[in-house]
Here is the input.
Amino acid sequence: MKKIKFLNKLVILLIVLYSLTNVLSIYSVLPAFGYGTFNGFFNFLSFTNFIVTLDFFFTLIFFIGLIYVHRGLLSIIKDGVFNIKTKEKFKRGGILFLVSGTLSFLLGLSLLVNDNFQDDYYILILIFLGKEFFVLVIGFSLYALTDIIDNGLMLKQENELTI
Here is the structure.
């Protein structure tokens, strides 16, 4: 149980760090949009700002997934591993990670195909793709973990019925 509590604290740290980076990214993006003026709307339609906005929304989906994982870990700490609440929270977190990772991975691939970048940007995009692939793997792992929890829940129910 100590390892689960430690993992929960790490997830809380990730949530705090993602909150700070999202606040800072909003603060850095707002001047580019012109704070809601008519010209700001046309700045929003520019490709670069559109990519930044898409990446922000994909990060927001990932952030919501982190919150579900945190709630799932809290459910494990309170009620044990094999319960329906844990299964549902990890399943939702895994699905959100899969959605965020897939959409961000596709965004990175579309940027990689774009020939307007210098050589230095290709390295950054490849790092970006690696990070998003890792999010995909974590999302799939969480989704697979729900099947293990579901099987354990069924075994637990069968064990309680035989006693």
